[in-house]
Specification:
The complex is a heterodimer of chains A (92) and B (231).
Chain A lengths: L1 H19 L3 H35 L4 H29 L1
Chain B lengths: L6 H10 L4 H4 L3 H22 L7 H21 L7 H17 L12 H23 L15 H40 L5 H31 L4
Helix pairs in contact in B: 3-5, 4-8, 5-8, 6-7, 6-8, 7-8
The chains are: A mainly alpha (92), B mainly alpha (231).
């Protein structure tokens, strides 16, 4: 119920914003795209971090190597979200 | 998009006697990069002139940073890593100070402009290819061919695309991380100007360190993959 209410309120705000602005789709698309990109990127990064944590917990001696590899992996995942941001930026 | 020049850009414009402030605002990042350059120069001079066997506070900090860079290069390339300390260290200092400068009021980040990050990334791209060619000569082409000869036509296309994506992703990553942080902090500041932006600025501090580290370590990895020999 709470979620539904939140959705309704956000939709109402969006409608107000759309009414003020002539081209509604242009306003909407970058934010939805960015939300999807950020959310899915977060899921992927969460998986990577949890695997790295398990690895470090099992073998604390390899923590340094695992951390470096994890950071590089996270960066490569994160750049996908940043590409979305780039597109949203250009089109928004 | 409207660009708001920093106070220092306005100052430079006033010193140079520029009338058209609107056009000069586009050179905000150049002014910021110049400030970064001057700070780097001062750090280098300060370290060089007061070099001591018993390091003071300042020298100790610089030594930790340089040892970190050297250790990272050594870990990846072995003894040959020492040759690449100048370029990797320069990039590290330039990007790090550029990132940090944006967190100080009245300054703006040089790295929150696409031109600066593209310049850094293109230098890295050209340099690692140059080093690869210097190391292997014509044999550098083999890096693009893949393991088996008949798969080469496919691999060459894929490798070229992936190599071209490297400077692109390097520059886009740095630019959007820094400027995105600024935009979010600005929006939050617009909503609640008191106390709330402070954690975001702390996050910006963390991002400044992390992005520098990432830029440097990716540069190292690209250099390593360019000069390594196939087994």
């Amino acid at each position: 119920m709470k979620k539904l209410l939140f959705l309704l309120v956000s939709m109402a705000f969006a409608t107000v914003a759309m009414a003020q602005d002539g081209h509604s789709g242009v306003l909407f698309a970058p934010s939805i795209g960015m939300a999807l990109g950020a959310g899915l990127c977060g899921l992927g990064q969460g998986k990577a971090i949890s695997a790295a944590c398990e690895g470090i917990a099992r073998n604390p001696g390899a923590a340094g190597n695992i951390r470096t590899t994890m950071i590089i992996g996270l960066v490569l995942i994160e750049s996908l979200a940043l590409y979305t941001l780039a597109v949203a930026w250009i089109k928004g | 998009m409207e660009i708001h020049p920093s106070v220092w850009t306005k100052l430079v414009a006033a010193i140079l006697g520029v009338q058209d402030m609107h056009a000069f605002a586009y050179y905000d990042h150049v002014v910021a990069a110049s400030i970064v350059f001057i700070i780097c120069l001062l750090i280098a001079l300060r370290t060089k002139t007061k070099l001591n066997m018993v390091p003071g506070h300042f020298q100790q900090v610089i030594e930790v940073v340089m040892e970190g860079i050297l250790g990272m290069l050594h870990e990846n390339m072995g003894a040959r890593g020492r040759r690449y300390v100048p370029i990797v260290g320069t990039l590290a200092f330039f990007i790090f100070i550029g990132n940090l400068l944006g967190l100080i009021p009245t300054f703006s980040s040089s790295t929150s402009n696409f031109n600066t990050t593209v310049a850094c990334a293109v230098i890295v791209f050209l340099f690692y290819n140059f080093e690869g060619i210097r190391e292997h000569g014509f044999g550098y082409v083999k890096h693009f061919m893949g393991p088996i000869w008949w798969i080469a036509p496919l691999m060459v296309v894929i490798e070229i695309i992936s190599h071209l994506a490297r400077p692109f992703s390097l520059s886009v990553r740095l630019f959007f991380n820094i400027s995105g942080e600024h935009i979010v902090a600005g929006i939050i500041y617009g909503m609640i100007p008191w106390l709330v932006p402070i954690p975001l600025m702390a996050l910006g501090l963390f991002a400044a360190v992390l992005q520098t580290f990432i830029f440097v370590i990716l540069t190292t990895l690209y250099l390593t993959s360019a000069i390594e020999h196939e087994h």
